[in-house]
Amino acid sequence: MLFSPVPMHIPDGFLSVLVSVVFWAFSIVGVGYALTRVGEDLGERQAPIMGVLAAAIFAGQMLNFSVTGGTSGHLLGAALATIVLGPWAAVLVMTSVVGIQALVFQDGGLLALGANIFNMAIVGVAVAYFAYSTVQRLLQRVAKDAAWIIPVNGFVAGWLSIFIASLACALQLALSGSSPANVAVPAMGGIHALIGIGEGLITAGSLVFILAARRDLLQPAAASAGSQRVVWVGGLVIAVLLTILSPLASAHPDGLEWVAEERGFIDLAQGPLYEIIPDYVLPGISNEALATILAGVVGVGLVLAATLVVAYARRRAQPVKEQ
Amino acid sequence: MTTAALDPYRPGDSLLHQLDARVKVGLALGFILATALAPPGAWPVLMLLLALALAVVILAELRASFVLARTALTLPFALAVLPSLFTVAGTPLFSLPWGWTATWEGMLRVANVAIKMWLSVLVALTLTATTPFTAILVVLRGWGLPKLLTAILALTWRYLFVLAEEAQRLMRARAARSGHIVQGRGGSLAWRARVTGGMVGNLLLRGTDRAERIYSAMAARGYDGEPRVLAQPPLTVRNRALLVLGSICLTLLALAGILFWG
Predict the structure, then answer these.
(1) What is the pTM (predicted TM-score) of this model?
(2) Which of A62, A72, A107, A210 to mutate to test the interface with B (most CBs of B within 10 A)?
(3) What is the b/e burial string over A9-42, where b = at least 16 CB atoms within 10 angstroms of the residue's CB?
(4) Would the pLDDT of A60 be above 80?
(5) Residue in A with minimal Cα distance to B219
(6) Does A206 touch chain B (CB under 8 A)?
């Protein structure tokens, strides 16, 4: 009942509050900057173009192809949005997609939305842009203007954006203490190295189609390559940093956990501070079991009260309907 | 299945449907924050949060089957926390071959994350099932969401189902042309991926053309880049009281958890 065949973003409960807040801050800065820069890419028709293309990429996630044994590949779209719209607009388009997935479809949590926007709209787009423009320059030296350059490029950008974004996600989970780095990094990285192939193939396939049908659409992104050095450098830094950090974190999961605990990153995994209030669980209640029972009684009372309110409201509404 | 069925909004006239969207969005976010702040092992706090969430679902008069089916969708993600069962050091619970030993502390951590995830999804679902997305967007715009981002989100939402239907037509056409894919036949994996890519490209081009038509129509009606929404009436005293009372309850719950179980 989602647009994509599987949920793709971090739900609430997985990230510690501090990690959530830090990544919200990163995302607000990144998206805010993209908002000020996007005018350079598109004119006043920017809102309709970005809105409708965000809807197209969102709906494009429904399109899947069978891989094997009931699994299927489908699009995530950061690389495609970057190649078609340019990086600044792509950040906003992916923010809109990820935002609606969280706000409406519960694919990804609301507190975790900052981290999800960071992974998909900032890491995904910056890395895709870095890969796309670098490979473009390298291949053009070898093969001038061959038709296969852009699709091949799209494959690389699609694969790398998914892979690096998944590493960012794994590190966020590890920093929150939800999933140990030595399991999360290889598992997330491994799965997404495969998912990335699907993403790369779809991105390449759609670029072949767009090249054949509307070649002019791809020109702006390729032409403005020089003016977007910030994104290129950002993508490079993110890609290098995450590829170095992830194996390190994976090899020393206890180290990451130690950092997490030292910095108060883990608000899970801590023992109760009974030393502060030795014998009291709640003021005046000296027994944990009693607190649980009390909470249970209050809880059942709350649910019962809600049921009674609804029943009362319905009964009052009914005679009006019958008359 | 029509794509409109994907929209979780369920029209109705329950108390929660009638409640001001600002109160709903504010309290839902507060609830999710309070849930995230609850330390592991603070079962009384989580029980009270669960009771609050269930009470709200009942007040929203949503079908249990709808709520359960929708909240179950995010469960696959819980796999990501499962390794903690074995890697957290503590009292051994049971062991598997290859030296994997589950611990009591590990189980607590997994249960803690899974319960928090479900509670948060439950409340987020109740919010979107009783509040149209456009109303949520008006609230967010009022709270300072940038103009351009508001416009993009509103247009994405407006055309999402239109383009989802385009996508379904594309898939129907593919199914009609190529029949059922039998294992090992029907083209290579790369070929299948390329065909799907072509469909995505097709969707993007149709989207671009549509965006141009939409822009022309908007420009003809005087569009100047400024999304316009009606000014919201000030919150009534009752809504204000509800917002304050709810925030106090959630703050107390979060504080109790941190003080007594942190």
Answers:
(1) 0.89
(2) A62
(3) bbbbbbbbebbbebbbeebeebbeebbebbeebb
(4) yes
(5) A45
(6) yes
| Window A:243-282, CB contacts with B under 8 Å | 253, 267-270, 272-273, 277, 280-282
Write down the pLDDT at residue A256: 55
Scan residues 38-57 of A and list those with Cβ closer than 8 Å to B: 38, 44-57
Does A3 fall in a domain? Answer: no
Q: Where are the domains of chain B?
A: 3-141+234-261, 146-220
Cβ partners under 8 Å of residue A199, min gap 6: A73, A75, A76, A79, A158, A159, A161, A162
Supply A91's token pair.
């950040």
Using a pLDDT cut of 70, give the percent of chain B over it: 95
How does residue A267 score in pLDDT terms, banded at 50, 70 and 90? very low
What percent of chain A is modeled with pLDDT above 70?
A: 78
User: Does A286 share its domain with A242?
Assistant: no
Report pLDDT digits (tens) over A170-187: 999 888 888 888 888 888
**Residue of A208, A267, A296 lying closest to B197 (CB–CB):** A208
Closest Cα in chain A to B41? A272
A208: domain range?
17-262
For residues A69 and A187, membership in a common domain is answered with yes
Alpha helices for chain B (secondary structure H): 15-18, 21-37, 43-59, 64-72, 84-87, 104-130, 133-142, 147-178, 189-220, 237-261
Query: Is A267 contained in some domain?
Result: no
pLDDT of the residue at A278: 45
> What is the pLDDT at residue B201?
93
Q: Is the pLDDT of residue B176 over 60?
A: yes
Instruction: Name the domain count of chain A.
Output: 2
Alpha-carbon distance A150 to A259, whole Å?
43
* A299 and A232 together in one domain: no
Is the residue at A11 inside a domain?
no
**Can you give the CATH number for the domain in which A242 is found?**
1.10.1760.20
Partner A contacted by B122 (CB < 8 A): no
